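FAQ: What does a multi-protein file look like?

Like this. Sequence, then tokens, then the next protein.
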Amino acid sequence: MKSLLVLLFAIIAFPVSEKSLTYDFGNSGDKTRDWVLLSDNVMGGVTRSNIEYKTNSVVLSGDISLDNFGGFASIKTTFSELDLSSFSGVKIRFKSENQQFAFTLEDSRNWTRPNYKNDFASKKPGTWETAVIYFKDFKEYLIGEPTGSKLNPGKLKNIVRLGIITTEKKEGPFTLEVDYIEFIH
């Protein structure tokens, strides 16, 4: 009985850490393969983009075009319900060429509602790097334009979609390879 009380006290005094959340990409084992491609083609743009799952990563690549008011390519999760309120940010292991990117959060299925994002870019193109992006630094955007507001932390309880998007509106080829996305405490 005494051992049981000591064990119970230990569990109460030292709670298990918060649940982790990681998107580990690729075609091997139980890697994530359910992100989808979304580019300016949905609004008449002509950017060419492709998504490819490799053994241990996902690759977003293509050729950005500014024709027909286009200029972006992205990958996004399917809609779901995520409570990210116990996390302080996100860590992304990636390598890229020729573009700057942003990690995005959406709290509505309606594309005319604000979304939230923060940029990350390669410091050494073509080599694996890790970006750490904190939610306190995310900015609010409405149909691609900044509103001047920041992400309200209360919004993190009801995230419906995650994404990565090109942000420079610069014509030309680009490549982004992502190994994993991990939410951090």
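And here is the next protein:
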Amino acid sequence: MIPWQQLDRAKVPGGRGEIALYRRGEELSIRLDRAELMNSRMHGSEEKLAELGCAPVRERERPSVLVGGLGMGFTLAATLAQLGPSAEVVVAELIGAVVAWNHAHLGHLAGHPLKDARVQVYEGDVRQLLRERKAGFDAVLLDVDNGPSGLTRDSNSQLYSPSGLGAAHTALRAGGVLAVWSVASDPAFTRRLGRAGFEVREHNVSARAGSKGPRHTLWIAIKG
């Protein structure tokens, strides 16, 4: 068995401990302490998030999409694949080291999406960007932490609180989409989305494309 090799580690701003990047052969993993946050072999649900989240708005003229959370770049790459050449895609990533890892170690996994001319990188809290861009986005795709129940830092849960969902609602244009990834279902969150003014559909999808392995939850919420 090939052992895991730690490539780098970084503090989580305002969060719990450190995240670290590991490699084992061709496999890459990002972990918080012993908990694996993402793995290069498991990204089917991230790609489905982009597919379902972009579908209602992809034919709009010059669509603007916000991707909250860069991770290993799979959600960003799938978003770009859904959109035409006139689209604008902003990817917000709180941890600067994750952006650096995508340039140095991870970019090849998803076809180097940060090199796409349609992409703008915002290194900071996605909540701040949502507050700044009122009616600025056609779709907001949130792949932050483990979903509505924050793991890396407590303040991530605020993104999925009534005030956080209100900010996302305000940041969307009419008929815009809020798409949310989660490691598990959360009925209380589904109800919060409805109370925030969204028409909601919940999807249970495979973590690996076409696999019978782990499953994740996606919410596709349309601004009413």
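Q: Is there any per-entry metadata?
A: Some entries carry free-text notes. For the entry above: The chain has one domain: 42-223.
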